[in-house]
Amino acid sequence: MKIYADIQSGNCYKIKLLTSLLSIEHEWIEVDIMANETLSESFLKKNANGKIPLLELDDGRFLSESNAILNYLASGTSLVGDTSFAYAKIQQWQFFEQYSHEPFIAVARFIAKYLGLPEDKKAEYDAKQAGGHKALKVMAEQLQKTPYLVGDHLTTADISLYGYTHVANEGGFNLAQYPAIEQWISRIQSHPKYVGME
Prior knowledge:
The chain has about 200 residues and is of the alpha+beta class. The protein has helices at about 10-20, 40-45, 65-75, 85-115, 120-145, 155-165, 180-190, and strands spanning about 1-5, 25-30, 55, 60-65.
């Protein structure tokens, strides 16, 4: 299989982390979003939405959206839970990640890391801080109760949220005020076959 991605993107990195944890063989194809490579005619034929990550299976089928890719690749493992309710809780956190977490933390990080925090983006960057901290507080509340977001073991919910949370400082979010999150990050990093952002 092939994975079209940018390793510095949290949405892409989470796929890399999962493939490492599950020892899934793949070809990693680096895509430069700043050079608009996702908008090329050849890429748009693969994904009309023009976004990464994108999974290409051996039979030529494609799958986009990072959390859909995660859950597909982890299907049949403990990472997607052992009951339908556990899987629904995983998805609950993944929807939270895309709608309540990523729009603030990932966007603030993009403005700072990819764009260099230009003056004309400063107001937008500042406006992302409150929403990002709200999301981190929600995560911290859960992680004070359980070691992982959906109980006692790692799931794709954790991988989804780890992608941007562990680099939230690059978007201006100080994680020192969330010790439960810092402990969760260390827990994930201690897993066998863990791989960091390159």
